[in-house]
Design a protein that fits this description.
0% of the residues lie in helices and 48% in strands. The chain is mostly beta strands.
Length: 127
């Protein structure tokens, strides 16, 4: 059974930083791509960032490019999302997800490319 557990979400000030973690178990972590998505109240879930299985390809939504950085530590089965220069519009529940296929290097920006999701962690940015 695949499990993903997000952590690190909390209340932050605009302009501040947070680091989210996604701890994975149940698959050979180093062979799967991981993505971060977010969902704000009343809005659809949207892509934020993704890292392919090798860590050699990174993808970002335009809204976070230059502010957020995704990385992975395969020894710890964990993916991180470093969030800098936070804005109130970053307020959302953040979810990590694991790609359906091993060694997958597709767009990684569409929710249907993933099959297991974490429970989410709340990020609130105050102005």
């Amino acid at each position: 059974q695949v499990q993903l557990v997000e952590s690190g979400g909390r209340l932050a000030q605009a302009g501040g930083s947070l680091r989210l973690s996604c701890a994975a178990s149940g698959r050979t972590f180093s062979t799967y791509s991981i993505g971060w998505f977010r969902q704000a109240p009343g809005k659809e879930r949207e892509f934020v960032a993704a890292i392919n299985w090798s860590g050699g390809s990174l993808y970002y939504a335009d809204s976070v490019k230059g502010r957020f950085t995704i990385s992975r530590d395969n020894a710890k089965n964990t993916v991180y999302l470093q969030m800098n220069s936070l804005k109130p519009e970053d307020t959302a529940v953040y979810y990590c997800a694991v790609a359906r296929l091993q060694f997958y290097s597709g767009s990684l920006q569409v929710a249907t490319e993933y099959d297991y999701w974490g429970q989410g962690t709340q990020v609130t940015v105050s102005s």
